[in-house]
Structure formats: structure tokens, C-alpha cells
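Batch queue: ligand-bound targets. Current item pairs a single chain with 2-acetamido-2-deoxy-beta-D-glucopyranose. No template structures supplied; prediction is de novo from sequence plus SMILES. Inputs echoed for audit trail.
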Amino acid sequence: MGFKNFKDLRIMTSGRFHAFLLLLFCVLQRSEQTCPSVCLCISDTVSCSAAGLNRLPRSLPSFPTNLDLSHNHLTWLGPKSFYVMPRLEKLWMAHNEIRNLSHNVFSNVSSLRVLDLSSNKLQIVERHHFQGLWRLEELRLFNNKISQVEAGTFIGLSSLKKVYLSFNHITDFPFFSIQDHTHPFLAMLDLSSNRMSSLLWEDVKALPRLVQQGLYIHNNSLICNCSMYSVFWHWNLRNYDSIRDFADEHFCNVNGDPRTSLQFLHNNRFFKNCTVEKPVMQPVVDLLSDVVIYEGDRAHLDCLTSLTSKDLSFSWLYPRSGINDTLISMFPNGTLEIQAAMVNDSGIYLCTAVDVKQGLNATREVNVTVLLPAAVPFNTGYTTLLCCSVTLVLIFAYLFLTPCQCGFCKNPPAAYSQGTLSCIFSCFRRQQPNGGTLRHVAFTEQLMGEERAGQIPQSSQ
Ligand SMILES: *[C@@H]1O[C@H](CO)[C@@H](O)[C@H](O)[C@H]1NC(C)=O
Ligand SMILES: *[C@@H]1O[C@H](CO)[C@@H](O)[C@H](O)[C@H]1NC(C)=O
Ligand SMILES: *[C@@H]1O[C@H](CO)[C@@H](O)[C@H](O)[C@H]1NC(C)=O
Ligand SMILES: *[C@@H]1O[C@H](CO)[C@@H](O)[C@H](O)[C@H]1NC(C)=O
Ligand SMILES: *[C@@H]1O[C@H](CO)[C@@H](O)[C@H](O)[C@H]1NC(C)=O
Ligand SMILES: *[C@@H]1O[C@H](CO)[C@@H](O)[C@H](O)[C@H]1NC(C)=O
Ligand SMILES: *[C@@H]1O[C@H](CO)[C@@H](O)[C@H](O)[C@H]1NC(C)=O
Ligand SMILES: *[C@@H]1O[C@H](CO)[C@@H](O)[C@H](O)[C@H]1NC(C)=O
Ligand SMILES: *[C@@H]1O[C@H](CO)[C@@H](O)[C@H](O)[C@H]1NC(C)=O
Ligand SMILES: *[C@@H]1O[C@H](CO)[C@@H](O)[C@H](O)[C@H]1NC(C)=O
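Prediction returned. C-alpha cells below.
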């Protein structure tokens, strides 16, 4: 991306030097192609940002892969607007006044990967708008006036990864048109802050797992009902970012009345009559975590899973049988303590947390590597000092200590129970794991876009 260069350029530029550089770049770039007078052309980027444009510059060069038309007054894009730019990959048009796109706007630009039409005045996303953009990965349409997204809009856009449609007036979305085999990479669909009240929840549930995980629909005007609650209940259970990061912004209206708005992720008493069907009886496997320690060290292996209930029972599966379990115990919160790890204790430890009430299991794997402390650096002076101290202690011990009266060090507390398998321990947790810190995926990315646009300097006059 050439934006940093733009910034550098701005610092260097002043008056005539500016003009000279511009000329130099344009001449060096493509001798036969001219840079529109209101734009900056550098490397493979053309920026016509905030140039007061009402329509596209008449003669756009064909070389750029990056075209920035943001912060102008464009209202409409005609057919084959970018026909002469077959290499275009990123097209920035945020903060214009575009109301509609004609047919075939993007013909001959099938190399487009990022299209930013955010903060415009689009009203309907029509099925013809983006046809042919089969390489398109990111589509930004947030902060428009979109009330409808036509079914079929995303047909053929098989490379889509992220679609941003927040802050519009959308009441309905064609979820059925998105499927695993048609959109295998779609991992972000932001429909938050729209006007959706009732969705076809069966269609939402049928969405590919990746899409559900990246679907943001908070701050709409959803009507409270059991079908709706069941969807969010499952997402909450799986600890999806969309729920965790925006828990306070999930509202629904009782009987559709906006005056009785309910924060339903916190206030779930209303839904106690709903039968939430149990999720597929497949344990959720949480990511493997790594623990590297030295022999003799104490290790704590936590059993934090996506289950958040207060009544969980835990069990650990050791990497091999025959581990000396007098040195291992488990806290009520499922954390396993290895008091003095041996090299032999290395391996995968598997914790299963079971929520008996809900009939749910989740597992956590910890890859423990115990290293020999061979690499501990000792210099000779230090070693000598240590030897002297040890000798002194031994002498004092010999002189003054009577043999140990082993009254208080009987049996270790029975905090464990030995099993025949290498599966041990089971008890109940009474603490809840700490919730993670808030991460605002959807908005972080949007803000990045805004910032990026803000960074680009005014073009030359
Ligand atoms: C359209 O794109 C092709 C390559 O994909 C290119 O050869 C052709 O010149 C382009 N058309 C125009 C009018 O630039
Ligand atoms: C947008 O433009 C297309 C093609 O010109 C036209 O068919 C459609 O009716 C327009 N839509 C709106 C909402 O004006
Ligand atoms: C919620 O959506 C409305 C528009 O529907 C918007 O005005 C408001 O700023 C949004 N609230 C938040 C917290 O994003
Ligand atoms: C909930 O509302 C949806 C429409 O959004 C409807 O299709 C469904 O039947 C309702 N479910 C229940 C349990 O009322
Ligand atoms: C739940 O069911 C009970 C008994 O059937 C009923 O009295 C109550 O109003 C119901 N609550 C809701 C929120 O529907
Ligand atoms: C959950 O764990 C319990 C006890 O370990 C086991 O009996 C049950 O089969 C497990 N269920 C699933 C779905 O793995
Ligand atoms: C386990 O460790 C304890 C303490 O180090 C030791 O006394 C005991 O003999 C060990 N048991 C086995 C089976 O190795
Ligand atoms: C579990 O409890 C132990 C002892 O109270 C504590 O040291 C540890 O940090 C706790 N683990 C988690 C994940 O809360
Ligand atoms: C590892 O375990 C095996 C058998 O359990 C034992 O023979 C061997 O000495 C152990 N090695 C270490 C370093 O503890
Ligand atoms: C566990 O960690 C060790 C050492 O870091 C590594 O070699 C091994 O591949 C890891 N095992 C798994 C299953 O990730």
C-alpha cells in the first residue's frame, strides 16, 4: 500500500517542489499515461480523495491497482466506470453521495478484492450491483440508507470474506443465499444497528458455522420469541465474539413493542418457558494451549472452556498411565496442579468439563513440555558460593537438629482419588472463569477504514 508514501510525500511537499515531484512520478510511472490533474499518482496507486469531484475524472490511467475516490461528491456511477482499469484491486469510495449504481459498473474489473462504498446514500443493494466480482473479498456498505438487500446479490461472489452492512435501514436479509459451498470463506457479516425485527431463524441456524461465528446482529429491533432466543443461547454457549463483545447491545422487544425493550442476554427469565433444544451432542474442543516448564517446577493447568455455568464437574486425562499422582491435585475450579514436574510428565493433558444440567461437555487440551534444567547458567564463583553455603547448612544441621518427629506430616490430604485408568478427579467448580477483555472486532475494523481514509492528504490543486 502506498499510503505511507503519501504521508511522507506530504511532509516533503511544498509549493513548486510538490509540483515537480508529481510530474516526476507521473513521468516515471507510465510515460504514455497522464495522471488526472486533481489526483496524485504514485507507484500503482491513484488518489483523488477529497478533490471535490462530482463525477469520475475523464481520463483515468490503466495501471493502478488502488484507486481512492473517497470524500468527494459522486452521486452515481455509470456503466463500465472502471473499464479501463483491469488491474484494479482496491477501490475506495467512502464518503460520497452515491445513491445508485447502474448496470455493469464494474465490468472489466474482476480483479477487484476490496470495495468500499461505506458512508454513501445507497438505498437498495440490487442483485446486479456486484455481479462478476468473483475475487471480491471485502465489501463495505456500512452507514448508507440501505433498506433492502436483494436476494441474489451475493451470487457468484465466492471469494467473500467480510461484508459490512451495519448502520443501515435493513429489515430483512437473504440468509438462505449464503451457504457453505457458495461462500466458503465468509467469516464476517455485520448487520448490526439496522431495523430487523423478525428474522427467519431457521435460515440463520442453517448458516455455515463460520458465518454464524462472524454474524453481528446486535442493536436491531428484534421481537422477543423462543426461536430467536434459542439462536443466541447457542451462540452464547459457544462464546462467540459477537455475543461476548456486545452483550449489552443485544435487545429484543416484548410483543414487538419498542417500549418494552429487554436486554435478553442478561435478563433471561422471560425465556424460561422456552425449550432450548440441546446442541449437537458433540463436545466443543477448545484450543490447545502450551505450557513449558523445567523439571521440578510447579505447574498449574487450567480447565477454562466455553462452558460458563457455575456447576461444572471436571476430569483430567493424563498423557500416559503410571504418572505419580501423589504429586498432583486439582482445585475446585478445575485447575490441575503438578507439584514437581518430571520430564516424564510431558504430553497432552485433556480436561473435560461437564455441565450436568445442560448435558454439555467441553474439553481443554494442554500440551505440557517439561525440560531438564541443563541449560541453567552457573558461573564458577556462584557455584563455589553455593557449595560453601550448602556445606555450612549441613554442618549446622548435623550439630543441632534432632531426628524428625514425623507427627504432622502423615498422609497427604486426600484431595485426589486414584482410578484404574489414567482418568482421575472429579469435583464441582464454584467459581466462574474470568470473562476475557472486550474486543470490538466489527468496529475496530470499521474505524481502521475511517482512519485510513482520514490519513490521505488533500490532493494537489
Ligand atoms: C478489459 O480487460 C482486458 C483484460 O482483462 C484488457 O485486455 C482490455 O484492454 C480491457 N478493456 C479496456 C477497454 O481497457
Ligand atoms: C438503480 O439503477 C438501476 C439501473 O439503472 C435501475 O434499474 C434501478 O431502478 C435503480 N434503483 C433505484 C432505487 O433508483
Ligand atoms: C444503534 O442503532 C441506531 C440506529 O438504528 C444508531 O443510531 C445507534 O447509534 C446505534 N447504537 C449503537 C450503540 O451503536
Ligand atoms: C418467532 O418469530 C419467528 C419470526 O421471526 C416465527 O417464524 C416463529 O414461528 C416464532 N417462534 C415462536 C416460537 O413463536
Ligand atoms: C411461562 O409459563 C407459565 C405457566 O405456563 C405462565 O404462567 C407464564 O406466564 C409463562 N411466562 C412467559 C414469559 O410466557
Ligand atoms: C460428557 O461427559 C460424560 C462424563 O464424562 C460422559 O458420560 C458423556 O458421554 C459425555 N458426553 C459427550 C457428548 O461427550
Ligand atoms: C510418588 O512420589 C512420592 C513423593 O516423591 C514417593 O514417595 C512415591 O514413592 C512415588 N510413588 C511412585 C509410585 O513412584
Ligand atoms: C483456580 O484456583 C486456584 C486456587 O484457588 C487459583 O490459583 C487459580 O488461579 C484458579 N484458576 C482459575 C482459572 O481461575
Ligand atoms: C520415566 O518413566 C520410566 C518408566 O515409567 C522410568 O523407567 C524412567 O526412569 C523415567 N524417567 C525419568 C527421567 O523419570
Ligand atoms: C507439544 O509441544 C511439543 C514441544 O513444544 C511439540 O513438539 C509437540 O508437537 C506439541 N504437541 C502437540 C500435539 O501440539
